Amino acid sequence: MGTVVITGGTDGIGGGLARACLDRGDRIVVVGRDEAKGRALVAADGGTAATFIAADLSLVSENRRVVAEIAQRFPVVDAVVLCARFYHSRRTVTSEGFEHTFALLYLSRFLLGEGLLDNLERADQPVIVNVAGPGPNPVDVHWDDVQLAHDYDGTTALMQSGRLNNLLGAGFVPRHPAARTRYVLVNPGSTATSFAGEYDASVAAHIESMKRFGKPVAQSVAPIARVIESPPREPLSAFVEGGRIGVDDAAFAPADAARLHDLTEGLLSALAVPREA
Ligand SMILES: NC(=O)c1ccc[n+]([C@@H]2O[C@H](COP(=O)([O-])OP(=O)(O)OC[C@H]3O[C@@H](n4cnc5c(N)ncnc54)[C@H](OP(=O)(O)O)[C@@H]3O)[C@@H](O)[C@H]2O)c1
Q1: Distance from the CA of 269 to the center of ligand 1, in angstroms?
Q2: Could you give the C-alpha distances from 109 to 129, 150, 162, in angstroms and in order?
Q3: Is residue 41 in some structural domain?
Q4: What is the CATH classification number for the domain harbouring 237?
Q5: Position 1 pLDDT exceeds 90
Q6: pTM as predicted
């Protein structure tokens, strides 16, 4: 039994993983926005092994609040599984001034991984599982306009976030050379989930077909559960639909990872939010 933190654990793959973890006797800490779904999850468990923390993870301040609460309530965290996602066909900016996809699918994952590292390091086999989109044919990072202020497109933002998460994993390892925590990138492949988002008509049609033809959530949960149970030996690894892929190509380039880290620190230091994480 371990303590597993799951962002986006109120629905989709994160929700399926939350149920699987409860079934095998883990304690789970689910972070999501929808209080009703969170309450239902805790009630189904009888309130013993499940904790729900309501938060809007597109906000840096909320990520810092969540990190502080988890760090204080759960001194040992065995796994952090990052699943929260939301799609915007139209460019949307958070109240802190960040483009929403960048904030939720990348910045939040940076803050939670870094912020919970001390708690992870107290576990026997700690692991961060970043459920995103590693795979062949990585897209470029729009380095000069990473938040796509000038030419926004929801799919471009989503695809870029996958690449940013590759680099997040690639940068985590050299930043924490002595850490025992394994960083695992997982692309579950097309899965029939809730596909939380605000879609224009053309994307909505595509999403409906993904909901009809995507594989069942349980199929995408199983490889993630295996990684939590028995993390890979390598500090960084990546899987596509359960199969291992290499992490030595340009998609994971250390120089790009370092560049992203500098860019991230610059954005965060420019933000007038008290730093607790
Ligand atoms: N489904 C696929 O085909 C597919 C393919 C490749 C990769 N992935 C990756 O797999 C992961 C899970 O995707 P999914 O399809 O299972 O997701 P999903 O069904 O759309 O569920 C999204 C989850 O994110 C939460 N969320 C949304 N906005 C949030 C916010 N601002 N703050 C906190 N939580 C928020 C939702 O919480 P509430 O319900 O509480 O609002 C929900 O639990 C994602 O990282 C996605 O990129 C999925």
Answers
A1: 27
A2: 10, 24, 12
A3: yes
A4: 3.40.50.720
A5: no
A6: 0.97
